[in-house]
Amino acid sequence: MTMISRRALLAAGASFPLVTASAFSQIPARKVLRFGLSSFPPSLQPWVHTGTAALTVKLLIFRGLTGFDEKGEVRPELAESWTQDGPTGWIFKLRQASFHNGKPVTADDVKWTLEQIAAPNSTAFLRAEFGGIETIETPDPRTVRIVMKQPTVTLPIWLASPHAPIIAKDSLEGRGLGVGAGPFVVKDQERGVSIEVAAFDKYYKPGLPRLAGIKLTAYADENLRVAALQAGDIDLIEYVPWQHMAAIEKDPRLKLDAANGPFMGLNFNGTSGPFKDSRLRQAVGFAIRREDIVQAAFFGRGTPLQGIPIPDTSPYYDAGRAKFWSYDPDRARKLMAEAGVPKGFSCTLLSTAQYGMHKSTAEVVQAHLGEIGIDVKLNLPDWASRVDLGGKGRYEFCVQGTTADNNDPDGLAPLLDGELPPNISRSFGLPTPELHALFAKGRAEFDIAKRKAIYAELEKLALEQAPLVGLAWRSQGYGMVKGVTGFKALPGGTNFSRPIRWKRPRWLEPCCALPESSSVIPDAAKRSSGIPS
């Protein structure tokens, strides 16, 4: 799955932290937050998935029609309300908001944005999903009517994705970035080093942002990132290395905020190499002792993931299916024999040395597969190269660190549906037409009992075909000085896409409150998508 990494430094509509003099007594209060990124964003193209570090920056400068609240549920953003209109239609009412160029956010901008994402030649992460749009109507500047080709309960959830920000019409020409409507504007950047953003004075939420700006500095070396926080050079860092979490918790000047939801897994190349054969993908799944990954990569701050990444808090969770890939080397060897390689084979595993968790995960996988005769060579480039190789399918199998797109089971589609366009979040060139059909069936069904049956069938099929082999859930941590207040990492599948919330003091509008008059999502859609009524 996200991410800048931690996908979205600001959740929709949130306010921002204050860094007070109590953070470090020798440092006075400042108006610019200093944020330590885990890598420099490979790209800030608004609709393309280039990693979680990029998402942190993009969610400072962009906003979508909807977003996620601190419980990971859909909330209004540029759309102040929305209602279902017949079996396939949705009507969105826009709030008064401005783009960074001073122009108002209009229905025409929304229509143009969604058309760009859905275009046949688009490289957008959600191209396939928005390809299900039949028509987009703009009866007035603040009303958008979206008609889908079939009933689609998940449309408001898709629109909350950080991969679907609304961009000013035609603003991508000659720039590549686009003009957004988020709380900050890009002020300056030093390629490969840092990005500075400044507060947007016409942001649509009164009194926000509460910072003059944020300076995001990339610390590719995770130990240097922690050292910068401990030295007072940085106020907040993402991707706290698991071996440093205890030290941050014990430091009286610092604090740790962590949430579960991200996970580690393996993706495969379905166009070349040994893993075109599902039996060998299955063999890999049964050959790994996942507790070793939890200890080696996450210092015990995680749990084994022996199935498809559906958390045990989900109404779609099944305890039996969740244990499908329990360690069984004899079964792995039997599958290898059935595939015609009883004595094993050689292959290359793509990961990265830039993140310790990726490297350690790869090393454990290498060791365990060696025990059943699979000789694994590691390819550990920097993160930007890892993204490039993964997107182009230049690997045989690879370590994946991600999360679902949201907390609805449809959020697993970008990870499992091989009929979608190539992307670093899923296996490459591995067709899954049956899974594709079941995802389509699930998102067209509004009855929650029927949806559960659909996704149970989908989960069984995904375990058999193994386009993704789960390895370990992990606790995702952020370290900060105690003077940073109001920080909250979002749960589950929203951890990357809206991982950080800046709560507002009680004397301001509650951070998660919806307008009382908003009819944001029909009861039927709430029930079917798992959003509480």
Task: Please specify the SSE layout and strand pairing.
Blueprint: E1 32-37, H1 52-61, E2 66-68, E3 74-76, E4 79-85, E5 89-94, H2 107-118, H3 127-130, E6 133-140, E7 143-148, H4 155-159, E8 184-190, E9 194-199, E10 213-218, H5 222-231, E11 236-237, H6 245-250, E12 254-268, H7 278-286, H8 290-298, E13 302-304, H9 329-338, E14 345-350, H10 356-370, E15 374-379, H11 383-391, E16 397-402, H12 413-416, H13 433-443, H14 448-465, E17 468-481, E18 487-489, H15 494-497, E19 500-502, H16 523-529
Parallel strand pairs: 1-10, 1-11, 14-15, 14-16
Antiparallel strand pairs: 2-3, 4-5, 5-7, 6-7, 8-9, 9-10, 11-17, 12-16, 12-17, 13-17, 18-19
Helix pairs in contact: 7-9, 8-10, 13-14
